Amino acid sequence: MKNFLCFLLLFLSINLQAGFLGELAFNYHSDAENADDTAYSRLDYRVYVAASFNQNRRVFFGQNIMFVNREMKSSGTGQTDSISVMELGPKLLLFFNESSTFGLALGWNPYAKGSRTRSGQSEDVSGSSMVGAIVVQAKVTKKFYVGASLNYHSLTITESTDSSNTQEDVSHTYTTMYPMFDLSFRF
After folding, report:
1. CB burial readout 37-73, b (16+ within 10 A) else e
2. How far is CA 160 from CA 111, 117, 124, 154, 174, in A?
3. Which residues make beta-bridge pairs with 178?
4. Which of 49, 103, 129, 158 would be a feasible disulfide site paired with 95, CB 3.0-4.6 Å?
5. Is 113 exposed, middle or buried (0-12, 13-18, 19+ CB in 10 A)?
């Protein structure tokens, strides 16, 4: 049995050519209007570390780390509503062409924790999120790619804890579609 396992590991290692991908993506958006004296801003950035175990390196699976900061100020009421969340979870990236420059990414973040301010009240929040993206990247060097992605992100808050440690089950969803600028390192 021990010899069989050694043979199996040797056979599999001959066909495997692991590849690694590190990616940094970010987006900043701001908007202001004077009809209701409101201003909105959002900052998203993502770190993705993944590995590929197929020869053509077109399928990557790894850890997704996202940071979402969203703020809405109303000069009329003098209040600022905001949410700041860190999200962690697995993500799959599939490239459709041979040069691995056009693909689709799908991720699920079962860990989403942060803080939120609503109507002047601060609270800690937790929940989960889903993310999907269409990815286009251009090869700059053998290991460095630059590109953009169109992202769909849905964050669901399921639990909030106020400043007096009162915990409440909630169901609040933040859904956004936005572009991101991507930097990718592959080796």
Report:
1. eeeeebebbbebebebeeeebbbbebebbbebebbbb
2. 14, 11, 6, 17, 15
3. 151
4. 103
5. middle
The model's pLDDT over 69-95, given as tens digits with 9 standing for 90+, comes to 999 888 777 788 899 999 999 999 999
- DSSP letter at 100 equals S
What per-residue confidence (pLDDT) applies to 7? Answer: 55
**Has residue 118 got a pLDDT over 90?**
no
For 9-52, how does the pLDDT look when each residue is reduced to its tens digit (9 = 90+)? Answer: 555 554 556 689 999 999 999 988 877 778 889 999 999 999 99
Alpha-helical segments (H) within the chain? 2-15
> What b-and-e string marks burial along 7-28, b requiring 16 or more CB atoms within 10 Å of the CB?
eeeeeeeeeeeebebebebebe
